[in-house]
Amino acid sequence: MTSTTPPPPSRTAPLLSAEGLHVTFPGRHGAAQARAVDGVDLDIRPGEIVALVGESGCGKTTLARSLLGLVPPTAGRVTFAGRPLEYSSRALKAYRRRVQLVLQDPSGSLNPRHTVYDAVAEGLRIHRYAGDERAAVAEALSRAGLRPPERFFLRYPHELSGGQRQRVVIAGALVLEPELIVADEPVASLDASVRGEILALLLRLRTELGLSALVVTHDLGLAWNIADRVAVMYLGRIVETGAVEQVLTAPQHPYTQALLSVLPEAPGDPVVLTGEPPDPSRIPSGCRFHARCQILASGEAERASVADACREQDLPVLAGGGRAQVACHWARVVRTEAVGQVRP
Predict the structure, then answer these.
(1) Residue 254's closest CA among 291, 227, 221, 303?
(2) In 3D, which of 223, 291, 226 has the Cα closest to residue 53?
(3) Do you know which NCBIfam families this protein is assigned to (predicted)?
(4) Which of 132, 219, 242, 326 is 20 to 30 Å from the Cα of 41, by its Cα?
């Protein structure tokens, strides 16, 4: 592995892209199909960390699995380095050498009967690595912060702390020298004292290796600390996206505002959303958030003359690039009025 300084993500072509992505699952006993991912465009550029944020059940893990080639899309496509992803066994094996998954539960990710050495070397053996296996494993462990690496070779997962186990999982991804990692809730199962260390590690890997990452999380605080860009997902679609500072300091979508309002440092009272997210097999008409929307419930949407549109008019799929975007009738009216007020 060679150290490199990546170019600014905004100036480079996407490394990984979802284009019009849909993933549906058959309903039980003749029920309607569940639209887990219901139209998503998303780009991840070289050296960029994108946080995919949303409640449990919003479709973010299904989207991540589809980007990894684990769940073929029902419609749309995934492209990597400008080429559409192919789903033959050979093509997927080559793709997964370049794109690696880091799961949230290191205890479940590691075989308790395998040593740390075997856990990290497993990917090399699957891909028939022709180089010096011991040196590759040692370098991956060292990059993941387990030094000296030889001290960990013969240890078993139960002999490690939670943070050390997560570093072993990360080393297992790094050993294949991927260009992008998909980290699904990478610190959710760790103590607060260890989370910062793992996040700092991911940032250091981006700096040293030019590594890109998609970080799947329900935690907006984590997104603030690690991401360049954030995509907020609700009921199968991205409803707001943009630079992390812009989205998290001036959220436009009512759903993003509600998620941010419950953070400990957030000003004002938390927004308590009523009800549960709708069933993905029965997505409502209009804005898919309108049944729980505090803006609609308070009458603000009515005063902005968009209440009927909120209930009846669907919103377009947001583009996958880096500019700030929001899928909300009310936010678009408010933003248009604000732009008009600052014009001479």
Answers:
(1) 291
(2) 223
(3) oligo_HPY
(4) 219
Q: Is the pTM of this model over 0.90?
A: yes
Respond yes or no on whether the N-terminal peptide bond of residue 267 is cis (omega within 30° of 0): no
User: What pLDDT is recorded for position 338?
Assistant: 54
Domain 12-232 in CATH 3.40.50.300: yes
> In this structure, which amino acid lies at residue 1?
M
Q: Cα 109 to chain center, whole Å? A: 19
Q: Which residues pair with 100 in a beta bridge?
A: 181
Q: 298-311: string of b/e by CB count within 10 Å (b at 16+)?
A: eebbeebebbebbb
Tokens representing 307 are 């209440």
Kindly report, residue by residue over 41-56, the tens digit of the pLDDT.
999 999 999 999 999 8
Higher pLDDT, 146 or 29: 146
Query: In the chain, what is the greatest distance between 2 CA atoms, to the nearest angstrom?
Result: 70
Amino acid occupying residue 232? V
pLDDT at 253 over 80: yes
Up-side HSE of residue 72: CA atoms within 13 Å toward CB? 8
With a CB cutoff of 8 Å and minimum separation 6, the contacts of 311 are: 285, 286, 287, 290, 296
CATH 3.40.50.300 domain range(s) in the chain: 12-232
Instruction: Note the pLDDT tens digit of each residue in 86-113.
Output: 999 999 999 999 999 998 777 788 999 9
